[in-house]
Structure prediction request, 281 residues.
Amino acid sequence: MERWWHYLTPGPAQLGTGLACLGVGLQRGRLPVVGPRVLDHWVAVVVGSGRGWYALPGGRRLPVAAPAVLWLRPGVPHHYGPDGDGWAESFVDFTGAGTAGYAELGLLPEAEVVPLDSAEAAQRVIARIAAICRRGGPTAGTEASVAVHELLVELHRQRADLGPEGAPVMEVLRRDACLPLSVSEHARRVGMGVEELRRAVRAQGATSPKEYLLTVRLNEAKHLLAASELPVSAVARRVGYQDPAYFTRLFTRRVGVAPTVFRQREYRGGALPVGEGPEQG
Prediction:
């Protein structure tokens, strides 16, 4: 049996970044059963080989077959272990206010046991976190915490329980985002109902079709404002808004500044359009 782990104690500044790594471990063999217990933080347990079980609070056992990830959620009892032949696992403990956003995006799923197409990418990230912790130093906690973000994305990418239709749907939405279409019209173009489209979009890591389309539109609007001399009204039409005033209100609410102010700050083209130059102070 092989077992190694290392724990970190992030300070207020590290916790203030939104996501902090609390520990990492690598284990292999006939490992002892874990729990029942309750933690106050998240843990991702990546099972790279072997089989086992995960017991729900009511006692029903879910089978676990590698590759898979066990999600241990704060405040929720968990109880799990390998079968008689053992298994190989790697785990990362983490916490922070940023976990709420990742949960909303679907990268921290509600399911306790999630099958993976492959554990290799996640295992590489965890191995890197372990190497950072072994090396130590004043930036070790920050480097490990940055890698946790990457780990969550990799575990989502490798989910085996997500339908294959999600990725091409997202590509069509991205391609057509700036067309003046409603969400229901976008759904019809990809052969789905609105609710089906919402599920597909959420499974790919976005909160909703409307939010994803808005993000693509605003990203394109920022590019046009920074790189072209198009008037704001033309930028609005280019990204799907026929009413420039509505576009300006929407842009201002989401970005924090009006389109003209964004252009004053970020313009990287030639001469600014007349009347939209930087203010002189």
Summary: Residues 32 and 194 are 46 Å apart (CA to CA).
